[in-house]
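Researcher: We're reviewing a set of sequences before deciding which ones to prioritize for further study. For each one, I'd like a predicted 3D structure that I can look through quickly. This is Acyl-CoA synthetase. If possible, include the structure in token form so it fits the rest of the review sheet.
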Amino acid sequence: MTVATSPAGLDNRVVVAGVARSWRDLPVPALPSPGVVLAAGAADALAVARRHAVDGTELLLAAPTRVDATMRDELRAAGFAVTVLTAGVPQTVPPAVSRAPEAGRLWLLTSGSTGRPKRVGHSLDSLTTVRSAQPERTWLCPYAPGSYAWWQVVTLSLTQPGQHLVVVDPDELDDWPAIAAAHGVDAVSGTPTFWRRTLHRDPQALARVPLRQLTLGGEPVDQAVLDRLRELFPAARISWIYASSEVGASIVVHDGRAGFPVGWLDRVTPGRPTLSLRDDELVITSPHHGVGLDGPVRTGDRAQVVDDRVVITGRLDSDEINVGGSKVSAGLVRAVLTAHPGVAWARVTGRRAPVLGRMVVAEVVPTTAPGDAGAPPDEGALVRWCADRLPEYAVPRRIRLLTEIPVKETLKSDV
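Model: Here's the predicted structure for Acyl-CoA synthetase, in token form for your review sheet.
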């Protein structure tokens, strides 16, 4: 395994809590290896990442809320010291068993969308998927420390000259456009929920950020959010990335359309992932895979061919709703709802129903609140909108209106 000792981006600027410094100037904490570091603050997380990049320590970095007491005991039993790092001050519990560190190993936790998070092995090299020279950018990183998406932005800044970084903590997320504008951010990576939430809360503040690159990932992407971002940033490049801890960054689309071209299926190109469909499940063979995940990996994500695109609609265990024997894709119904000009966000699920077994229901956040100029759509109007575009069995029977877009620590809304 290659261990980086002098990353090319060490002179790039990083900004945390309004303070700018270079990667090289970040304090490097003395931490045990193998080690789990639970860092709630952005500054601590970046310092730990820098130490790994320079020293090749065996590391699992995560936010404290991602690792409960049971998992901490499991990690200690696997030979990890567990450190809670707060404002540079470590509190460490030693491992339950001793073992030699694996030089250069980075461990990531999966999202846990299919159950308890699992540990996936990577290295700085396998997480670095952008290798060609890039135009100078200042990136905003809103992700939780240690997540795959967080490492994608961090490795870009660590390994590429001219890729500067502005990191926001969770309590700054509502005000991120003002922070971004103040520090010259021109590139942002976030989930579709992150972007929808900002478009809903303060599109004027978002429009003041001079963005040249917008990246979406981590959730299914529908055409409505892409179109709304394009309206706001007509000259920017808008990218959608499919990535996971298991298979790495495997799909990158820049054409402004939801999904990816059908022609990419089963295309074998050296050095690039191979994408396939098996029983409506996306299967990926990726050169960016985690340890022990070479060959075809079943992703657990449902994908469907719609015209000339392959559209990822959601998780297999939650996307399909059986209504009286007819199969309904929650993701496709969600895309119909979010295409309504009065809908900022939607979640579609199934509910038990007499005779049919299940029926389709939805939660919706309107683009306008009661009392604002322009009345928000009511339940009846949204049902009629769906009835004009969906088979009768797929039309939501109940639509609940919410006032705020729900978001988790992962910046996802569990759709």
